Amino acid sequence: MAQDFIVRQAPIDKHMRKIDTLALKSVIEREEAQSPASKLYEDWDNKYAHKATELPDSFRINLRGFHMPTESRVVTSNFGARWGRQHKGLDIKVYIGDTIRAAFSGKVRVVKYDGGGYGKYVVIRHNNGLETIYGHMSAQLVEENQVVKAGQPIGLGGNTGRSTGSHLHFETRLCGVALNPALMFDFRNQDVVGDYYMFHKSTYENEGRWANEVRGKIGNGGYQASDVRGETIPGGLKQKEASSAKQRQMGHMSQNANTVARYHKVAAGETLYSIAKRHGLTVDELCKKNHLTRDVKVRVGQLLRYT
Q1: Predicted TM-score of the model (pTM)
Q2: Residues forming beta bridges with residue 198, ordered by sequence position
């Protein structure tokens, strides 16, 4: 009899566990909506764009469910030292009135104007632990404490604040500390680097410098790639000069192909052998270019140099 009762009770227990799981998930979602990434941040302050606190030794940042903040593929200024000071984000070429969107779902923390810096800017705290900052906009379309979804319009491109031309200043911060957005975002390919970015306190600065080389500004002083409007303006040339400049530039690149670093983004199912074969290399040559050993397992989203 007891065994029969246990058998009859099992489906009920399974159903109750399912209900409990759904209820717990609902509670977690409500808590995250009220205070995203509360485990990393001690407070919720609408006065300041950022306040640095202690970084974790390591932290996995979930990049799934992202949306690129702009369709523009042109990076005009890298993260890092610039004009004698630290530039703590990426500058992306946008035009006044272009739509700027939330990179991830989260909650708007700051909507303010900073005449000597960000201009009209928005700060969003996300459930993955990041805060993103969007600066120099011409208009803000959200309010403080508003919950937003990834891809939701939050502002319009502009030239407000300390800015020399219309662009989006885009920052990614963890615990108030600026991380190079190029560690996670690839604007030229309109994609993120993978499902996750594994932050390590001891290595993120060196990784950030490397990220500039593979996903930052192209060229010296101007664009080498076309933006979404099809314009190519190398070295600040006027548009009527762009075509011939691009031809000269491509010829220069072909003459110096061996000096141009090119990278392969690892897809699911790929191995060192298949990647090496695809680019006409031996596995040893591919390993040497990337300081790897033959027995290493490559991960999806990893970038491997092949030139």
Answers
A1: 0.65
A2: 60
